[in-house]
From TrEMBL:
<dbReference type="GO" id="GO:0016020">
    <property type="term" value="C:membrane"/>
</dbReference>
<protein>
    <recommendedName>
        <fullName>Nitrous-oxide reductase</fullName>
        <ecNumber>1.7.2.4</ecNumber>
    </recommendedName>
</protein>
<dbReference type="InterPro" id="IPR006311">
    <property type="entry name" value="TAT_signal"/>
</dbReference>
<feature type="binding site">
    <location>
        <position position="178"/>
    </location>
    <ligand>
        <name>Cu cation Z2</name>
    </ligand>
</feature>
<comment type="similarity">
    <text>In the C-terminal section; belongs to the cytochrome c oxidase subunit 2 family.</text>
</comment>
<feature type="binding site">
    <location>
        <position position="623"/>
    </location>
    <ligand>
        <name>Cu cation A1</name>
    </ligand>
</feature>
<dbReference type="InterPro" id="IPR019546">
    <property type="entry name" value="TAT_signal_bac_arc"/>
</dbReference>
<feature type="region of interest" description="COX2-like">
    <location>
        <begin position="536"/>
        <end position="632"/>
    </location>
</feature>
<comment type="similarity">
    <text>Belongs to the NosZ family.</text>
</comment>
<comment type="pathway">
    <text>Nitrogen metabolism; nitrate reduction (denitrification); dinitrogen from nitrate: step 4/4.</text>
</comment>
<feature type="binding site">
    <location>
        <position position="376"/>
    </location>
    <ligand>
        <name>Cu cation Z1</name>
    </ligand>
</feature>
<keyword id="KW-0574">Periplasm</keyword>
<feature type="binding site">
    <location>
        <position position="612"/>
    </location>
    <ligand>
        <name>Cu cation A2</name>
    </ligand>
</feature>
<feature type="binding site">
    <location>
        <position position="320"/>
    </location>
    <ligand>
        <name>Cu cation Z1</name>
    </ligand>
</feature>
<feature type="binding site">
    <location>
        <position position="129"/>
    </location>
    <ligand>
        <name>Cu cation Z2</name>
    </ligand>
</feature>
<keyword id="KW-0186">Copper</keyword>
<dbReference type="Pfam" id="PF00116">
    <property type="entry name" value="COX2"/>
</dbReference>
Length: 632
């Protein structure tokens, strides 16, 4: 790797007008932090501070009562959830529990959530990295959001009309689903997702050697959420993206060495990006040219070196992010241990697969030197790319066309600007950047460390998601956004691209199993308040209308397995009720016109109160009732 001095020699100096890292903190906070941390240094004058703050304010302040222009969906990292923010205000609007358990909504506690998560052996953790929104013809269609779970090798789907997770699929025969992107064209038929680590096959303890180990590229059907196919690859897999023809997907591999130790993973100067030929893969599946692994029925194809299904393009070194440009022309692989990004021309891939090129590297049309630790690249739709530099703690704006000219030997400077970010950025994401509509207005940079940017909260720090105005020539930092562990990536969509329901439809499939059970019990959920006994199973049906449950007392016997169904009869937007059975670990959300249910064992005789735990009315405290458990 080159030394930093060599790398930056030909680059323009960082403009002096770059915003100071403290410019947008309130004066009082600035003084406080400076005092608390001993970082007294360069505090700007009151006037220039005010001017800078005012200039920025014009760009990003969303006044009380005003709505944001964009929805932002953030992954929650090892919190396992998805968060919804308004951009540019960076106000957190909602949390969508997915791979985690959530006390507020009852996710992981209710039967409806267990229908999605699985009723047995439900994991309590997850690690969500990459949220992506379904597309039609390369544009966000606002139907679904998909996200990976690296921790437990799953892929989840969120319905964006109600902002709830409605399906989770465990990917068989692999470990650690990481990079995830969607087919863009003609529509999101497949969710492409990479399994990061190689494992032996079969993985039953009989053989743990690397010779019998591999990992797979996976495609999940976006509608059925069943795994459509898996492709065995050489090396490992990290991030991925799809093109705008529907023909290709491309993934990075940082461990071409298949090493187990850290030093080993850095042995090769080049690893690769592997391109998947989706048409050929589909044809092979259709022709039955596949095998299966273990108990799984999923078609498994061999995409290792020499296969007609894949091509391996050498790129330096331990590459990480893989990002398609919104003009559909390039896959860009981010070098991580190399100061470069590798620009792959998608229109040369047909020739590569046809065998018309001498060398796989012939598809590379630029390899600009950007700085230390390039991880992810995003685009403004005006020909510029923005790459995070983890080690330099910067975002570099560069021009793709100029980088290509430079690679062809022309004397052009492709670097436009470098901006300090705080600190150590992973992903960055520009508004609408993964679609044809990339509009170059906002850039979010997800910094892994916040150190001295916020009031100290003990040894564990928040992350810092910074908002940068990229609408002009110059990038301008306008907001610091502390976040809890640990967003990896986000996606910004125009607010008109998302259509949400104000209240539930009574026939929403989200609670269809409760509706079916009520039908079998001869219960009308909308009006009946009934207790149905079925052996030692007791089903308690009740309505809720602010501020009353339809049932304020019910009796069961010690040891009964009790299921409580609450159907919210309010039709007014925002009047959500809750149901919490004290000392039973039971809590759930019931939004207007929703039915929710929860099952628990009434194992202790006596009186047990239940109450509404979503504030719904002036008499919300009075919304309660008693379960009486008779001694067995
Ligand atoms: S990938 S930065 Cu999942 Cu980069 Cu996190
Ligand atoms: Cu119903 Cu609070
Ligand atoms: Ca490597």
């Amino acid at each position: 790797m080159k030394k930093r001095d060599d790398l930056t020699k030909d680059m323009p100096a960082i403009p002096a007008t770059d915003l100071s890292r403290r410019r947008f903190m309130g004066a009082a906070a600035m003084a406080g932090v400076a005092g608390a941390t001993g970082l007294g240094a360069a505090v700007m004058s009151r006037e220039s501070f005010a001017a800078a703050a005012e200039a920025a304010r014009n760009n990003f302040i969303v006044h009380p009562g005003e709505l944001d222009e964009y929805y932002g969906f953030w992954s929650g990292g090892h919190s396992g959830e998805v968060r919804v923010l308004g951009v540019p205000s960076m106000r957190e609007l909602m949390r969508i529990p997915v791979f985690n358990v959530d006390s507020a909504t009852g996710w992981g506690i209710t039967n409806e959530s267990k229908d999605v998560l699985g009723h047995d052996n439900t994991f309590l953790n997850g690690d969500s990295h990459h949220p992506h929104i379904s597309m039609t013809d390369g544009r966000y269609d606002g139907k679904y959001l998909f996200i990976n779970d690296k921790a437990n090798s799953r892929v989840a789907r969120i319905r964006l009309d109600i902002m709830k997770c409605d399906k989770i699929t465990t990917i068989p025969n692999v470990q650690a689903i990481h990079g995830l992107r969607l087919q863009k064209v003609p529509k999101t038929k497949y969710v492409f997702c990479n399994a990061e680590y190689v494992i032996p096959h079969p993985n039953d303890g009989t053989d743990t050697s690397l010779e019998s180990s591999f990992t797979m590229f996976n495609a999940v059907d976006a509608e059925t959420m069943e795994v459509a196919f898996q492709v065995i690859v050489d090396g490992n897999l990290d991030n991925t993206d799809a093109d705008y023809t529907g023909k290709y997907a491309c993934s990075t591999c940082y461990n071409s060495e298949k090493a187990l130790d850290l030093a080993g993973t850095m042995r090769n100067d080049r690893d690769w990006a592997v391109v998947f030929n989706i048409e050929r893969i589909e044809q092979a599946v259709k022709n039955g040219n596949f095998k299966t692994l273990g108990d799984s029925r999923v078609p498994v194809l061999d995409g290792r070196e020499g296969s007609e299904l894949t091509r391996y393009i050498p790129v330096p070194k331990n590459p990480h992010g893989l990002n398609t440009s919104p003009d559909g022309k390039y896959f860009i692989a981010n070098g991580k241990l190399s100061p470069t990004c590798t620009v792959i021309a998608i229109d040369k891939l047909d020739d590569l697969f046809a065998g018309n090129l001498k060398d796989a590297r012939d598809v590379v049309v630029a390899e600009p030197e950007l700085g230390l630790g390039p991880l992810h690249t995003t685009y403004d739709g005006r020909g510029n790319a923005y790459t995070t530099l983890f080690i330099d703690s910067q975002v570099v704006k560069w021009n793709v066309a100029d980088a290509i000219k430079h690679y062809d030997g022309e004397e052009v400077n492709y670097i436009r600007q470098k901006l300090d970010v705080h600190y150590q950025p992973g992903h960055n994401h520009a508004s609408l950047t993964e679609s044809r509509d990339a509009d170059g207005k906002w850039l979010v940079v997800l910094s892994k460390f916040s150190k001295d940017r916020f009031l100290p909260v003990g040894p564990l720090h928040p992350e810092n998601d910074q908002l940068i105005d990229i609408s002009g020539e110059e990038m301008k930092l306008v907001h610091d956004g502390p976040t809890f562990a640990e967003p990896h990536d986000c996606i910004l969509v125009r607010r008109d691209q998302i259509k949400t329901k104000k209240i539930y439809d009574r026939d929403d499939p989200y609670f269809a199993s409760a509706v079916e059970q009520a039908k079998r019990d001869g219960v009308t959920l909308e009006s009946d308040n009934k207790v149905i006994r079925d052996g030692n199973k007791v089903r308690v049906y009740m309505t809720s209308v602010a501020p009353m449950y339809g049932t304020t007392e019910f009796k069961v016997k010690q040891g009964d397995e009790v299921t409580v169904y609450v159907s919210n009869q309010d039709t007014i937007e925002d009047v959500t009720h809750g149901f919490c059975m004290v000392n039973h670990g039971v809590s759930m959300e019931i939004s207007p016109q929703q039915t929710s249910s929860v099952t628990f064992v009434a194992d202790r005789p006596g009186v047990h109160w239940y109450y509404c735990n979503w504030f719904c009315h002036a008499l919300h405290m009075e919304m309660r009732g008693r379960m009486i458990v008779e001694k067995a």
